[in-house]
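Tokens for chain A. Residues wanted.
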């Protein structure tokens, strides 16, 4: 069984950052995937943008089976990560280039815990899951090994659900208003798919707090629980 220490870099309540850019879809593009089109082309907009239960006003997702929905309503990326990939790829990447709705500055948001709540603008959001990079993303970035490199980097950005609707615009503060304390950060969860201890800790917290896990994390918890039961039955 894998064991894990609580990440020392989990962001606490009171940690603050800044919304560097708010991005929505600019245009749909043809894509070789099963859906045939993609809404990954996000670009920064000016002024306040409404944040509803399913995401930002005027934003859409083409592949509704894998993107969007209440548990993936808003996707945010650390601006430092976009800068990293600009250097790696040797070209400028503007806000939205990684498909993000929010570019966050001065806060390493992959170190937010699952279930952490953040206030930005007048909206209240809750962290649900890391992003899992897909082939559409790789095709969009135009580099054959980009998905593998993004995976290896392990800081893939944060999905949020919307607890309180409101408005957000570039320049707004982001503040962590609640940190669960279980230590299962977005980065740790992304890199810990086989980590039963981490998954158990997260599932125990969610059960006690009455918080619904993202469907992929709930499925992971059920697989690990089934595996543990199977191991016990074989003893």
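Reply:
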């Amino acid at each position: 069984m894998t064991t894990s220490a609580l990440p020392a870099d989990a962001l606490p309540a009171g940690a603050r950052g800044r919304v560097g850019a708010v991005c929505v879809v600019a245009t749909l593009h043809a894509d070789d995937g099963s859906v045939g089109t993609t809404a990954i082309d996000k670009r920064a907009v000016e002024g306040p943008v409404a944040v509803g239960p399913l995401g930002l006003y005027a934003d859409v997702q083409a592949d509704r089976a894998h993107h969007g929905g209440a548990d993936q309503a808003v996707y945010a990326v650390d601006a430092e990560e976009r800068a990293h990939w600009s250097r790696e790829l040797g070209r400028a990447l503007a806000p939205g280039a990684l498909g993000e709705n929010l570019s966050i500055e001065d806060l390493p948001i992959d170190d937010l815990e699952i279930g952490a709540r953040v206030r930005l603008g007048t909206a209240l959001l809750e962290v649900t899951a890391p992003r899992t990079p897909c082939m559409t993303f790789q095709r969009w970035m135009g580099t054959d090994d980009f998905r593998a490199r993004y995976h290896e980097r392990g800081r893939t950005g944060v999905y949020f659900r919307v607890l309180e609707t409101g408005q957000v615009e570039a320049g707004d503060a982001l503040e962590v208003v609640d940190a669960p304390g279980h230590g299962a950060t977005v980065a740790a969860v992304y890199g810990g798919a086989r980590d039963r201890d981490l998954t158990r800790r997260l599932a125990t917290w969610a059960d006690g707090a009455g918080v619904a896990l993202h469907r992929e994390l709930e499925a992971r918890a059920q697989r690990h629980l089934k595996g543990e039961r199977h191991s016990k039955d074989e003893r």
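The chain has one domain: 16-187. The radius of gyration is 18 Å.
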